[in-house]
Amino acid sequence: MKGEExxxxxxxxxxxxxxxxxxxxxxLAKLVLEEVWLIPKRIRSVLEKQGITGPKPSFPYGNIxxxxxxxxxxxxxxxxxxxxxxxxxxxxxxxxxxxxxxxKQHYGPIYxxxxxxxxxxxxxxxxxxxxxxxxxxxDLGRPTHLAxxxxxxxxxxxxxxxxxxxxxxxxxxxxxxxxxxVKKMVGFMEESTMTMIRTWERRIIEFQREGGKExxxxxxxxxxxxxxxxxxxxACFGSSYDKGNQIFAKLATMQTALAxxxxxxxxxxxxxxxxxxxxxxxxxxxxxxxxxxxxKAINDRVVENQKGSGNQNQxxxxxxxxxxxxxxxxxxxxxxxxxxxxxxKTIYFAGAESVSIAATWTxxxxxxxxxxxxxxxxxxxxxxxxxxxxxCFHDMGKFRNLKTLTMVIQESLRLYSPAVxxxxxxxxxxxLREFVVPKGINIWLFIPELHRDAEIWGPDANxxxxxxxxxxxxxxxxxxxxYIPFGLGSRTCLGQTFAMVQLKIIISLLLSxxxxxxxxxxxxxxxxxxxxxxxxxxxxxxxxxxxxxx
Length: 550
Prior knowledge:
Elements: H1 2-48, H2 64-80, H3 92-95, H4 98-107, E1 110-115, E2 118-123, H5 126-134, E3 140-141, H6 144-149, H7 151-154, H8 163-173, H9 179-182, H10 186-209, E4 215-219, H11 221-237, H12 241-258, H13 261-265, H14 270-274, H15 278-307, H16 317-329, H17 333-368, H18 370-384, H19 396-400, H20 403-415, E5 421-426, E6 430-432, E7 435-437, E8 442-446, H21 447-451, H22 454-457, H23 496-513, E9 514-518, E10 526-529, E11 531-534, E12 539-544
Helix pairs in contact: 10-11, 10-23, 11-12, 11-17, 12-15, 12-17, 15-17, 16-17, 17-20, 17-23, 18-20
């Protein structure tokens, strides 16, 4: 009897376990079915009923195969003969994301497409972009798939967070980039730029000694990257800025590893996402090294503060964020460290890399348009006289008088905005004029296309014409809401003021010391590398400016 009872109990246990397992499988199957099939189908159905169409997806990969095929075809054509001209209608524009251009021709300025389970909505209609910019709701945020895939680079800082967490970080960080705070960083900007200028002067002298003229051919990209990294390092870490420069170098390497359309649109393969490939191991190692350096800087500052040996009145970004984080997180040390580390990484990527790229493109355009180069140089000398005097840029009244320079920078950001795409995810249902945008859709704006649309900017949309900004952005074009070099809406770049001030200082000092022309060896080939970068670098002929005012 006991044996039979034991056998019955074993069978009961077996069937119970089997029932639980089957139940779990059914629940998981329902979840997978919902995630993979029903939700995407529901999203597409909502858009289709409103007249929004697009390329037909195939299960389970959506339009990925078509996107890859179009990209390969476009790449093969653009690689055949990189342009040596500055015709802004060159193929590079639509070689970045060629499927955007092809689908726009077929389906108009609004269409939908799919990358696996992710559904996307392309918007190129100015009226809708205007509405998008006005949305303040937390239901419109950063695409979650993008935040996850770029987590090694940006962490969960302000660029990678949504909802209340993003709002909290924004309120904490935004005041540190108001003009009153940026003015305190002007000294760093001047100092670092003058260091680079002295390096360039030595290169010209060395070239002359070798039998050349008083000129030098330079690829300016790396020097400008080192300059902006130096500035943000000093502004961020103060006396520990040497650690900042190491951090920036490692983040730049990580950026290159992550700069793929598959990352941007969320169609990473299983292998590239999860398996321990060499690329994934390298990214993981860089992430650990960056975080170790930041934590070392944090710990050093904490020790300095405890000993009273540090200058707590210097109020660099690290000091401010430490104080705010201590107040906010209290004894939650791990959360506090994560918050500081992630936002330091964000400041580096957004504050150094994008500014250096903007400066590089602006110098390229000035080198290829000598009349505008001279106009800006004359304005600088008329405003400041002896540009070499220390702290000359602290006078914000004079700084605001650099109107021609401002126009040039704005036009450069129009033609060569470092940001290539603006993206949002509908975290809840939102309304865009006559359209209802369902929860879960990823919204995309292709910035180069918007910034060169002849219907918006006029027949000279592909030409370098800073005069269009003579009366500000609001008068520069038919729909000024499409001018979005710093993003749009409530998530507009917090460092916009910092970037514009730094760009003006860098360009003012460079033009007051040097004259620039485009090298005959320059190859014009902008490419996507998370930001818009010159594939072969920007090569300029640099010479000393004659008769600079004493």
